[in-house]
Design goal:
51 residues, mainly alpha, 45% helix
Length: 51
């Protein structure tokens, strides 16, 4: 699958139980796991203003 010019891929290693928990939450929110994690990061309170 191609990645846009303004995006990059990373490898993320998670404990299996955390991945399972995130997957369940993603399904409840009708999102893919990748999109769910991205959404959590983009909406984080620690994210700098304007980014």
């Amino acid at each position: 699958m191609a990645v846009g010019k303004d995006k990059t891929r990373i490898l993320l290693t998670l404990p299996m139980d955390l991945k399972d928990e995130l997957t369940k939450e993603a399904k409840r929110d009708n999102r893919s796991l990748n999109n769910y994690i991205l959404n959590l990061l983009l909406n984080s309170d620690r994210r700098p203003e304007g980014k």
